[in-house]
Amino acid sequence: MFKARRGSTKEEIIILDPYWREETIGLLRRQGRDDELICPVCKQPVLVRAGKKKRWHFAHKDLTNCPLKNESPNILQARILLYSWLKSKLGEKVTIEKYFPESNLPRPIDCYVELSADKKIGYWILDKGIRDRWVLKDAFSSLGISTVWVPLTTMLREDDEDLDSVHLTPTERELSFSSDYNQLYSRYDESLSYLNVEEKTVLTLRGLHCVHSPQKYRFFSKQEAILDQVSFSPLTGEFVHLGEYDRLLEHRKEIEEQERLEALKEQQRREEEKKRQQKITEQQNRFFSQTESQTEFSNQPLTKSPYPLRNPPENKKTESGSSNYYDKPYTCKICGKTTTTWSSLDLADNTCICSYECLNISNKNK
Known about the structure:
Layout lengths: L2 E4 L5 E3 L10 H9 L3 E2 L7 E4 L7 E4 L12 H18 L3 E5 L10 E6 L5 E7 L6 H10 L3 E6 L13 E3 L2 H6 L15 E6 L4 E6 L2 E4 L3 E3 L2 E6 L4 E2 L6 E2 L3 H55 L31 E3 L5 E2 L4 E3 L4 E3 L2 H10 L1
Parallel strand pairs: 8-9, 18-21
Antiparallel strand pairs: 1-2, 1-3, 4-5, 6-7, 7-8, 10-14, 11-12, 12-15, 13-14, 16-17, 18-19, 20-21
């Protein structure tokens, strides 16, 4: 472990911090021998181990009753690496081995970042699958802490025949996460980031998707870089590789421009549709106006026709010898049709206007 607490002041001491050097470590050694330093978890005394070979740390005088007695050496090494990286990015906002006694977490959070009262991020390192992952998720959620899961590359199982595929355990499948950076590579929105302790690198698989249920997954991009060259996302806490942030900004600008052009086209389409509907309405109004005018004219008495019937001369007889000229067919002077159902009659030349449509044509020609 790398954090202890002074029993008298309850001050937390992180032995990885730059303050503790050969010139200052003697103070901690004396306090440890005097039982002034205790474990934040089990409250038992701890000693300082600050030799030449191993990384400086605190060691229990008696590990019997401490839940940290079986901590993995791989996780301890990864914790050092991760804390140093976060410390270089965020300074005093970072701590290590953050312990919440009221939670159901089996051990302290490996690295803890408190950006604000509402923005807290916890990093949880894994070197093997875990069965109680739901318990861990619920514990983080109850504390209001966003979680960044950090599996080690010792868990990564790449496909020897398909270089763009990996075989994921149930834990890895469960802890893969959504990321805005996936859209730079594919339409699939799942990522996994692995920490390589020996090489001090981060490997991130972008665009993960299942190709053979349940464990074979293919990825669209594999980003690998030295940890010091990797950035920190203040929104999610995830690892951001070189150039990804600038590319994401450019990608978002392109999307915004595309959405602007589509909105402009939609506006133009609506305006054209509005004009078309207005034109149809105007045509319909003209049609109904003409129809009403024709209906009004058709309802007028025959004596009001612009072509009034002429009185026939007295004693004028038809070819049949009858003086009833209404029964005789006449030829329409407009359309040439011969009919007995005429609207207007001219006995001077024995012609007629056969219908009200021909009357309208005659009116327009005047």
